[in-house]
Amino acid sequence: xxxxxxxxxxxxxxxxxxxxxxxxxxxxxxxxxxxxxxxxxxxxxxxxxxxxxxxxxxxxxxxxxxxxxxxxxxxxxxxxxxxxxxxxxxxxxxxxxxxxxxxxxxxxxxxxxxxxxxxxxxxxxxxxxxxxxxxxxxxxxxxxxxxxxxxxxxxxxxxxxxxxxxxxxxxxxxxxxxxxxxxxxxxxxxxxxxxxxxxxxxxxxxxxxxxxxxxxxxxxxxxxxxxxxxxxxxxxxxxxxxxxxxxxxxxxxxxxxxxxxxxxxxxxxxxxxxxxxxxxxxxxxxxxxxxxxxxxxxxxxxxxxxxxxxxxxxxxxxxxxxxxxxxxxxxxxxxxxxxxxxxxxxxxxxxxxxxxxxxxxxxxxxxxxxxxxxxxxxxxxxxxxxxxxxxxx
Length: 393
Hints:
The protein is 25% helix and 27% strand. By secondary structure, it is of the alpha+beta class.
């Protein structure tokens, strides 16, 4: 029987490491991670692929993994095309190691991994990958204890009492067992990991164009967390202002970025809205539809990082897009503060933002490069730029 040290609380799951083999430019990569991970590099080196590994693992939990790979162009587009060891089957392998929130040593207590392969020739859905192997294990003692073990159609699981048995199922080859097997009483750790992974947020596409969801009012409903597209930003602000009544951190962040400015959040009716009041126009509210791209994007990032309830993990992909260089230091302070409440991965082109995060959060950014078509992670980033001179307030 597995020991009583097994976790059953979803909030206890913290990402300790992530690994991938055979996915796009990631021939073989393994990352250990803490509360904040910062990846800096140029265009086309594969930075976004690192975040996509965790986004695909979230897809394994919510049942969208195969659809996501198919949307990328299928296995042909997603698989590493470089040299493989002789005889190795062409596969994509994704892995995540979890620890406890209370354990600062970075130990892996659980791990989940899934291997994807090509469908048989002549399959009706040729772009859809098949799940070849899947495993969720408890790391206790000298050898990991499999709590879920799948090879092809056969699925075995270990229940809360430690009993291992084959699970009768009608899983399709493209479906993950993690996404389908949801029995919190019988398999509490599986349920907790699945629930945690489904709550991860990836802010890849906070658009600021005229048709952006950020520029429109949102439904007036309690919104403790920003949606991935930012479409409920106005409701997130209204939740902080009118339900919680605590906007100290938000007010400080806005003053830090736009000295003297004030966020205006009217009492919601059927919809919620917001605007900014600037010092040079003290009696004029600039609505979301009127704000510049950079101003609106900073407010969206503030909504993501200052929401009433942060997700257990969030990823920011090139958050500096559209931002004036003077906003990078305030953004770094926002990220550093949020990393004390949740776990963050940040991918950036900006050496200035990476340097600001190194100072504000005492984190060592990792440089991402490409060698012979393969994404590599370099531990040493070299000297980072010094902070710019302070602007007048």
